[in-house]
Write a structure and sequence with these properties.
The protein is an alpha/beta fold. The chain is built from 18 helices and 13 strands. It starts with a helix and ends in a 30-residue tail after the last strand.
Length: 479
């Protein structure tokens, strides 16, 4: 969606057609309520739609007329069979390839098929095999890998000013022609030095490796946050110090309740599965630990909530601020909650008997129910979960607030008003390290966050061989 919209905007001489089997989704693309939310995307669609940007369910017609065909289908993690829980399910990629082979008419000439979906290494080879074994007279195919490096919430910005555009193709004269054709599209707005060409396998692996490295940084700083909480160090200060090292840099060093979204965990587990299949168990275990630690960070944060509220949250009202996995993401009637930390924290608290009051500016109550309701215990959700459209109503009479998503509007809430309406003592758990903690403490909140001590009594300490031992009882002198 967003990629094709930007191509249409930047290349007015190219006719771009986005097709989908879902009439409902295409109807949304042709309306004011787009099926995904990205800042700036609606303006781009409004500018180009009806000119050189078309949204249609006529898949056959689009395939027949296209010179470049982008495969942009979902590649979820398999939930059954070989590789369950790790491997990417490529059934939609294969179906798309077979549809192309069946639809292209004889004598059409060269069709360039571009793999945009995140796929395991050598998936392009599979696409090529399907197309070439079903090739009609007078038709030839070239398969390219062109992975996306977009962050949800800034996709339009990332597309307009990309760090790099990768194009992988066959190292043959025919492959080079295809690579040059796609590079020519991007060169309309992307500087040539940022368009990187390589072989197909390197391009495919680069996407998985990039997401694995980014997630690794988040888990690394989150591991340091646990040490900071135990010792009295401040993870923000530590992150600032190590981020000044030019070999490391400051990005993705913000400690939090954990990473979420559709890409990081899925791509790492895919890399784990590939490593296992290549008989590289040590490599597989290394990357699996990144995901394992992310799970630990979420559960550690949830346990902190329970422990702080006097070791019980049963029948206590807990307000969850934010349910999407990050700010500025969402889809119509279904905000983007994929692998959101809020889901894991909420489920932990529900198991402890807490009453959850949830507010998110984009996520619908329908989506919250899909994510939290246990099919075997539907009555639990009905009894313990309420969704609200007003953060002040959600927080009223709550024992604690938990900030799970970094929505900008949470910076501007009237926390004095919220505090006055809460049960006392009023707890606030900042899972995104985004609020003014000193100001909140002065209001009366007991504040807890990631990677630093704020409201804990000075008498609390950690028993460690590296810290001086406390004075023994009765050792103080009296004069």
């Amino acid at each position: 969606g967003p990629t094709c919209c930007i191509i249409a905007q930047q290349c007015p001489d190219i006719q771009v057609t986005v097709v989908d089997k879902s009439a409902e989704r295409i109807q949304a693309w042709n309306s004011q309520d787009l099926p995904i939310y990205e800042p700036g995307l609606a303006e781009v669609v409004e500018e180009c739609r009806g000119k050189n940007l078309t949204f249609s369910t006529d898949i056959d017609g689009a395939i027949k007329s296209a010179d470049l065909i982008f495969i942009c289908v979902n590649t979820p993690t398999k939930t059954f069979g070989m590789g369950r829980g790790k491997a990417a399910d490529l059934k939609y990629v294969e179906l798309a390839a077979r549809m192309i082979a069946d639809t292209v008419e004889p004598g059409t000439g060269l069709k360039i098929v571009v793999e945009k979906s995140t796929v395991p290494v050598r998936a392009a080879e599979s696409i090529g095999n399907i197309l070439k074994h079903n090739k009609k007279p007078g038709v030839s195919y070239q398969i390219l890998s062109n992975p996306e490096f977009l962050a949800e919430g800034s996709a339009v910005k990332d597309l307009l000013s990309p760090d790099r555009v990768l194009i992988g193709g066959e190292e043959t004269p025919e492959g080079q022609i295809a690579v040059d054709a796609l590079a020519g599209v991007y060169s309309k707005w992307v500087p040539e030095d940022k368009i990187i060409t390589m072989n197909t396998w390197s391009s495919e692996l680069s996407k998985l490796a990039a997401n694995a490295f980014l997630a690794q940084r988040i888990s690394s700083i989150n591991s340091i946050s646990a040490v900071c909480e135990a010792t009295g160090a401040d993870v923000s200060e530590v992150a600032k110090a190590i981020g000044r090292d030019t070999r490391i840099g400051p990005k993705f060093l913000q400690a939090s309740v954990g990473f979420g979204g559709s890409c990081f965990q899925k791509d790492i587990l895919n890399l784990v599965y590939i490593s296992e299949c290549l008989n590289l168990p040590e490599v597989a275990e290394y990357w699996n630990q990144v995901v394992s630690f992310n799970t630990f960070q979420r559960s550690r944060f949830a346990r902190k909530v329970v422990e702080s509220l006097f070791n019980t949250v049963t029948d206590k009202k807990i307000c969850i601020l934010g349910f999407a996995f990050k700010k500025n993401t969402g889809r119509v009637a279904k905000g983007d909650t994929r692998e959101s930390a809020a889901i894991y924290v909420s489920k932990h608290l529900l198991e402890e008997g807490a009453h959850l009051s949830i507010y998110d500016p984009k996520v619908s109550a329908v989506q919250v129910k899909l994510d939290l309701e246990d099919p075997e215990r539907p009555e639990m959700f009905k009894k313990l979960v309420q969704c609200h459209k007003d953060p002040y109503v959600a927080a009223d009479k709550a024992h604690a607030l938990i900030v799970c998503t970094d929505w900008d509007e949470f910076l501007d809430l009237d926390y004095k008003r919220i505090y006055e309406g809460m049960a006392k003592p009023a707890f606030l758990f900042d899972g995104r390290k985004m609020l003014d903690h000193s100001k909140l403490i002065k209001m009366g909140f007991h504040v807890e966050t990631i990677g630093t001590r704020l409201s804990k009594s000075e008498s609390e300490r950690v028993d460690s061989p590296f810290l001086p031992a406390p004075c023994a009882h009765g050792s103080a002198s009296v004069t």
